[in-house]
Amino acid sequence: MKTRIVNILIADDDQDDCLLTREAFRECKIANRLHFVHDGEALLDYLKRRPPYDDEQKFPLPGLILLDLNMPLKDGREALMEIKADTALRAIPVVILTTSSAEEDILVSYGLGVNSFITKPASYSGLIEVIRALGRYWLDIVELPLEGATA
């Protein structure tokens, strides 16, 4: 199987987690381009191409979103609800990657249409394993919609 190169948008307000995630992708030799936003408002601005994210070359629509639940301004649940309610965005797969393992968060996330729910591991080696599995599944195995395609 051949890894498909898709843009990955990571929405996480924790700068350390963002750095560790970037390093984990690099260590797993996943060459996909990563883009980061740090709150739910910025996530929706990015996806809807509102300034400062209106340059399509610099900020391409993602083929996969990794979403933290607990972010400022608009949390991941609210952002997920808006993404899945928007016909232009709902086909983009969203994977929750969060510190929460609360059953309520899992149920609400799937009820809102999330594609997968992953609790962030406590160790860097655990993160490596999660990113490796995520890359294998989402980038090697599954057929993703073309970026920018709408249903």
Instruction: Give the distance, in angstroms, between the N- and C-terminal Cα atoms.
Output: 26 Å
Helix content: 25-40%
Compressed to H and E, one letter per element, the order equals EHEHEHEHEH
Say which CATH homologous superfamily is assigned: Response regulator
pLDDT < 50 stretches:
none
How many beta-strand segments? 5
Sheet/helix structural class: alpha/beta
What keyword list fits this structure?
5 helices; 5 strands; single chain; 151 residues; globular; Rossmann fold; alpha/beta; 5-stranded parallel beta sheet
Task: Detail the topology: elements first, then pairings.
Elements: E1 8-11, H1 15-27, E2 34-37, H2 40-47, E3 64-67, H3 76-85, E4 94-98, H4 103-111, E5 116-119, H5 124-141
Parallel strand pairs: 1-2, 1-3, 3-4, 4-5
Helix pairs in contact: 1-5, 2-3
Brief account:
With 151 residues, the protein is an alpha/beta fold. The protein has helices spanning 15-27, 40-47, 76-85, 103-111, 124-141, and strands at 8-11, 34-37, 64-67, 94-98, 116-119.
What does this structure look like?
- The protein is α/β, with parallel strands linked by helices.
- It has a single domain, classed as Response regulator (Rossmann fold).
- Helices cover 38% and strands 14% of the residues.
- A 5-stranded parallel beta sheet has the order 2-1-3-4-5.
- Helix 4 links the parallel strand 4 and strand 5.
- Helix 1 packs across helix 5 and helix 2 packs parallel to helix 3.
- The radius of gyration is 14 Å and the shape is globular.
- The two termini are 26 Å apart.
- The mean pLDDT is 88.
